[in-house]
Amino acid sequence: MQTHIETIQKEFEEDFKNCFSSATLESLKIKYLGKKGPIQDLMKGLKEASGEDRPKLGKSINDLKVSIEAKLTELGRSLIAREEQQKLLAEKIDETLPGKKRFQGRKHPVNGTLDEIINILIAMGFTVEQGPDIDTDYYNFEVLNFPPEHPARDMQDTFYINKEVLLRTHTSNIQARVMESQKPPIRIIAPGKCFRNEAVTSRSHVFFHQVEAVYIDKNVSFSDLMGTLTDFMQKLFYKDIKVRFWPNYFPFVEPGLQVDIHCLNCKGSGCTLCKHTGWLEVAGAGMIHPEVLKNGGIDPEEYSGFAWGLGIERLVMLKNGIKDIRLFTENDIRFLNQFSAI
Ligand code: FA5
């Protein structure tokens, strides 16, 4: 048995010399110290040794086991340290390399100006309401005095989903809704997306934004409308901005107005943005038609009101000297990066 112990020792020494990784070390542990390993076999065989030899042999087997365990533990420690060192070397950070640039997101220019407009109007006493982008023909047209087949419907080419449901063509679809749910005095704005099935040009798109304003109370007058709009434009642009009001027809207001502002791009001398007129149409407005007030359950004998629908993209274009509305939806990072970060 003693010879067998020595043979196992030699075999282990040989294996140990060739152990260079923790994976091999693990297999050596199993091979020599595992339940089916030679040390266990020697232990079992001890029973057969004579009573006289047993203590000596037992000690030899135990010494071999302890020495194998000690050698493997020691080697394990140095292998782990070496492997960790190698890993660290492979992962070494070169502090002289340039850092990774993080790109900061920013607001879309339309959203930036939209927020500015909303803040100005809140400070002027309006509260914010929301209307649906997908709406019925009733709220987008009929309740606003556009009867079916009325030629005025051609003013706003419409994306119909079916006979009754459409993508709203203007934020005026909020008007009857607020009249149905609130009692005068009503002073609300409603920002949102609008859709029109029309040719895309540098000034017009199938998709754009408006901010509707509705003010209904006793004795609201036409001069309130013009004064509020002019005050708003001066706050958004600058004190002396020139605002021009023209008569215009919308079935839901009487009288109706088109609102132009002086083209800031060419300072009035004429450019493609203002179609060489020096002015840009930015809103439709007017005194709410008595029929529309009635449709909303408000007595036109007692109350009057004004409404407007501001086109946001055109205001952003004027503010920033942007000559083509299509830039807002092209997602060209070179364009978007020119606007200040949030
Ligand atoms: C309207 O949409 C009316 N609802 C406005 C209104 C509200 C009138 C309340 C009276 C009372 P109009 O179609 O003119 O009106 O559009 C208003 C503004 O939206 C325009 O002056 C323009 O700035 C913008 N706009 C209209 N169509 C487009 C388009 N296709 N692309 C970009 N902006 C547009």
UniProtKB/TrEMBL annotation:
EC number assigned by the record: 6.1.1.20
Predominant location: cytoplasm
GO biological process, one term: phenylalanyl-tRNA aminoacylation
Reaction(s) the record says it catalyses: tRNA(Phe) + L-phenylalanine + ATP = L-phenylalanyl-tRNA(Phe) + AMP + diphosphate + H(+)
Top-level enzyme category: ligase
Location relative to the cell: Cytoplasm
Cofactor note text: Binds 2 magnesium ions per tetramer.
Cofactors that this protein relies on: Mg(2+)
Annotated keywords: Aminoacyl-tRNA synthetase, ATP-binding, Cytoplasm, Ligase, Magnesium, Metal-binding, Nucleotide-binding, Protein biosynthesis
InterPro entries: aa-tRNA-synth_II, aa-tRNA-synth_II/BPL/LPL, Phe-tRNA-synth_IIc_asu, Phe-tRNA_ligase_II_N, Phe_tRNA_ligase_alpha1_bac, Phenylalanyl-tRNA_Synthase, tRNA-bd_arm
UniProt feature coiled coil, ranges: none
GO MF annotations in UniProt: ATP binding; magnesium ion binding; phenylalanine-tRNA ligase activity; tRNA binding
Residue ranges crossing the lipid bilayer per the database entry: none
Residues annotated as domain Aminoacyl-transfer RNA synthetases class-II family profile: 119-318
Short name of any one Pfam family annotated for the protein: tRNA-synt_2d
Binding site for Mg(2+): E254
GO CC term (a single one): cytoplasm
Family statement: Belongs to the class-II aminoacyl-tRNA synthetase family. Phe-tRNA synthetase alpha subunit type 1 subfamily.
Alphabetical list of NCBIfam families matching this protein: pheS (TIGR00468)
Subunit composition and interactions: Tetramer of two alpha and two beta subunits.
UniProt-recorded name of the protein: Phenylalanine--tRNA ligase alpha subunit
Annotated source species: Candidatus Criblamydia sequanensis CRIB-18
